[in-house]
């Protein structure tokens, strides 16, 4: 019999699968919000529903040569974490007390949204340099776990 994966590995694998739906040209990110070992919502990064996907010609970050980790507002897309929170709101699902499994560490904007949505634990695979996100997560006592 095959050894079963841990819950963290299981949900991270699902986040990685969700990321394959991403329409972002720069980075594919997936997120899964979980509570009591049950999946509540998922999200991936990309343009909003009904808006055309980014192309090399329409990507604002490419057009304005925006470095990674800066000027998050200069993008047509939503982050995976934002889409997971929006999906919860759309369907009336409370994520308070939940965990988020995300392929990449949340940025400062997503960290603020996750804190206010009541997410208590961030679990991610790829660290992301954002000192403000780290500072806010620490101050809000958010538990953060990096999965190897």
What can be said about this structure in brief?
The protein is of the alpha/beta class and 148 residues long. It contains 5 helices and 5 strands, in the order αββααβαβαβ.
Which key terms come to mind for this protein?
single chain, 148 residues, alpha/beta, 32% helix, 5 helices, 5-stranded mixed sheet, 20% strand
List the helices and strands and how they pair.
Blueprint lengths: L6 H13 L10 E6 L2 E7 L15 H4 L16 H12 L7 E6 L3 H10 L3 E6 L4 H9 L3 E4 L2
Parallel strand pairs: 3-4, 4-5
Antiparallel strand pairs: 1-2, 1-3
Walkthrough of the structure:
By secondary structure, the protein is an alpha/beta fold. The chain has helices spanning 7-19, 60-63, 80-91, 108-117, 131-139; strands at residues 30-35, 38-44, 99-104, 121-126, 143-146. The chain has a 5-stranded mixed β-sheet, sandwiched between helices. Helix 4 packs parallel to helix 5 (131-139). The two termini are 24 Å apart. The mean pLDDT is 93.
């Amino acid at each position: 019999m095959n050894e079963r994966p841990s819950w963290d590995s299981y949900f991270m694998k699902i986040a990685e699968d969700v990321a394959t739906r991403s329409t972002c040209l720069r980075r594919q990110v997936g997120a899964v919000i979980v509570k009591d070992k049950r999946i509540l919502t998922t999200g991936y990064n990309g343009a909003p529903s009904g808006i055309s996907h980014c192309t090399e010609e329409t990507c604002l970050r490419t057009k304005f040569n925006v470095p990674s980790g800066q000027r998050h507002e200069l993008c047509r897309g939503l982050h995976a974490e934002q889409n997971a929170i929006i999906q919860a709101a759309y369907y009336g699902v409370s994520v308070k007390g939940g965990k988020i499994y995300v392929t990449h560490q949340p940025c400062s904007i997503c960290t603020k949204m996750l804190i206010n949505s009541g997410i208590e634990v961030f679990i991610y695979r790829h660290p992301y340099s954002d000192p403000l996100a780290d500072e806010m997560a620490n101050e809000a006592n958010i538990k953060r776990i990096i999965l190897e």
